[in-house]
Amino acid sequence: MATRYLQRILNAKVYDVARETELEHARNLSARLGNRVFLKREDNQPVFSFKLRGAYNKMAHLSAEQLARGVICASAGNHAQGVALSGRRLGCRTLIVMPVTTPQLKVDAVRALGGEVVLQGDSYSDAYEHALTLAEQQGLTFVHPFDDPDVIAGQGTIAMEILRQHQGPIDAVFVAIGGGGLISGVAAYLKAVRPEIKVIGVQTTDSDAMIRSVQAGKRVKLADVGLFSDGTAVKQVGVETFRLARALVDEYIRVDTDAVCAAIKDVFQDTRSILEPAGALGVAAVKQYVERTGCSDRTLIAITCGANMNFDRLRFVAERAEVGEAREALFAVTIPEERGSFKRFCELIGPRSVTEFNYRISDEHQAHIFVGLSTRTRGESAEIAELFRQQDFAAVDLTHNELANAHLRHLVGGRSELARDERLFRFVFPERPGALMRFLSSMHPGWNISLFHYRNQGADYGRILVGIQVPRAERSEFRRFLDTLAYPWVEETNNPVYRLFLR
User: Fold this and answer.
1) Which of 97, 145, 141, 138 has the alpha carbon at shortest distance from 121?
2) Does the keyword Lyase apply (predicted)?
3) Which SS3 state, helix, strand or coil, does residue 15 take?
4) What is the band of 216 on the pLDDT scale with cuts at 50, 70, 90?
5) Of the CATH numbers 2.40.50.140, 3.40.1020.10, 3.65.10.10, 1.10.10.10, which one belongs to the domain with range 410-501?
6) Among residues 204, 269, 287, 409, which one has the fewest Cβ atoms lying within 10 Å of its Cβ?
7) DSSP 409
C-alpha cells in the first residue's frame, strides 16, 4: 500500500509554490523532556500551512481544459488559501466556499490571493454541500481538502524532506489529524522508505473521528466536533485517508485544549512563532508521549502544520496554557466563618504564588474560596487538595473542571434567593451576528434567565453559561425545547462548582 504512493510522492509537483521548510531543533523543549525534539516548520509556508502542497499537486495534475473551466473547494481557511494561491500560479479561476462563521482574517487572506469567496452555511459540512452543487452547476473541478490521492501525495513530500534533512535515527513522527490527508501522505512515505519510524497520529479529545473510526473498523461520523482546533475539526474522515491511516499509522494520541495551549506556548518560547491550535497538536502529543512512556534520548519530530491564528484567541491560549503546563491549579475550599481561619488558610498556602482568589461569604458558619495556585509538576494539585483536607479545610480540585476554567473564574456574584427552580447549562453557538438573539428569541417567555455569562474568545464558535428558571411542571416542555436547538449543550446543574458558588 505504501509503495504504491511512493512514486506519486516522488513525482509530486509542489515546489512551484511551496518551499522546503526547516527541521528545527527545539532546544528548550528538548532539554525539558530529556529527548531530541525537532519541529518540521510547515507553519512557515507562504500561506502559513502545509495545505498548499496537496492543493497545488492536485491542480497541477489537472488537464488544460479543467484548468480553463476553473476549480472550486470548500474550506474554513488553510485549504482555501492553498487553492487560491495555486490558482493564481496556474492562471485559473478559483471559487472558494467558506462557512459564514469563518473569521474575517481568513476570508480576506483568500481574497487577497485572488480567490472568489462564497459564504454559505454555519459549518464546513454546509459549505461542502454547497460547493458540490456549484461545481456541478458551473462545470468546475472540485479540489478535496484531504480525500484525494494527489492531495495526499502532495502532503507526503513533507516526509520526504524530513528524511533528507535528518539522516540519522528517528524514533517517531507526530502528525495532527483532521480529515487525514497529512498523516496519510506522511505515513505512506515513511513506511515505504523507513518502516522502523513510528508514525503517531494526534487528535483533540473533542474531534477524534479518525481514532474512533480505527477503533470501530469503519468510518464513524461525529455528531459534533470541538472548534478550538478549527483546522482539525472534521466530523468524518475520508474513505482513502481512513484506509491508509488504518493500515499504516502505529499509534494515536488524544490531547485536550489545555495541552494544546501549553504546546503553543512551548513553541513560542523556542521559536518566537505562534502556531494555530491544529499546528501545535504534534508538540502536545510529544510531551504526553514522553510523560507516558518515560522515554529519554530519543529523536522525536512534530510537524507544526499551521499558524493561521486569530489574534483575539491569544487571550484564551494564555489563560489555559498555565493549566496545560501544570503551572496552575484551581480549588474550591470551604473554611469556617470564624476569626483566624482565613489567616490560617493563607499560611497553609505557604510560598506558592496565588494566581487567582475569589471569596464570598456564604453564611454565618462557613465561607467558600475560589483560589488558583502556581504549581511545578503535573499531579501536584491532588497533593495540595489533600493538604487542605488534612487541615480540616474541605477542598475540591477544579484544575480540569471546564466550567471553572471557562466561566466561573470570570463571574462576579454568587447565590441568590430569587433563583428558584434554576438549572444551569453550557451552550456552544456560531459566533456570527444575530446568533445570540436567535437563541434568546427561541425560548419560552415564561422561562426566566437568572444567570448569563459569555466571553468572546476570538474563536469561530462562542460559549455561554446560562441559568434558566424552569418550573417543575414545565420540565418536559423544556426538554423538548433543548432537543430542537441546533446548538450543542451540556447541563451543569449538578456540577460541584455551581453548587458551591452560585446555587
Assistant:
1) 97
2) yes
3) coil
4) very high
5) 3.40.1020.10
6) 269
7) G
Contact yes or no for 72/131 (Cβ under 8 A): yes
- Distance CA(416)–CA(500), nearest Å, equals 12
Predicted pLDDT at 501: 75
Q: Using N-to-C axis directions, what is the helix angle for 281-293 and 257-271, rounded to 10°? A: 100
Amino acid 433: pLDDT = 55
CA gap 42, 96 in Å, rounded = 22
The CATH number of 2-48+149-322 is which of 3.40.50.150, 3.90.550.10, 3.30.499.10, 3.40.50.1100?
Answer: 3.40.50.1100
Q: Which residues touch 334 (CB under 8 Å, ≥6 apart)?
A: 366, 367, 368, 369, 393, 394, 395, 500
- pLDDT tens per residue, range 23-66: 999 999 999 999 999 999 999 999 999 999 999 999 999 999 99
pLDDT, one tens digit per residue, over 118-158 is 999 877 778 899 999 999 999 999 999 999 999 999 999 99
One-character DSSP codes across 435-487: HHHHHHHTS-TTSEEEEEEE---SSSEEEEEEEEE--GGGHHHHHHHHHH-SS
Whole-model pTM: value is 0.78
Predicted confidence band at 491 (pLDDT cuts at 50, 70, 90)? very high
Alpha carbon distance 142, 121 (integer Å): 18
Burial, 503: exposed, middle or buried (Cβ in 10 Å; 0-12, 13-18, 19+)? middle
How many angstroms separate the CA atoms of 283 and 274, rounded? Answer: 13
In 3D space, the residue among 355, 293, 347, 351 whose CA is nearest the CA of residue 327 turns out to be 355
Contact yes or no for 286/201 (Cβ under 8 A)? no
Q: How far apart are CA 437 and CA 15, in angstroms?
A: 48
CB neighbour burial string for 261-287, b if at least 16 within 10 angstroms, e if fewer: bbbbbbbbebbebbbbbbbbbbbbbbb
In terms of Cα–Cα distance, which of 97, 108, 82 is closest to 140?
97
What grid cell was written down for 86?
495555486
pLDDT tops 60 at residue 361: no
Name the residue ranges covered by the structural domains of the chain. 2-48+149-322, 51-142, 326-400, 410-501
Kindly state which CATH superfamily the domain 326-400 is placed in.
Answer: Biosynthetic Threonine Deaminase; Domain 3 (3.40.1020.10)
- Strand runs (DSSP E) across 29-70, as ranges? 36-40
Q: Round to whole Å and give the CA distance between 382 and 384.
A: 5
51-142 fold: Rossmann fold (3.40.50)
Cα-Cα end-to-end distance for the chain? 58
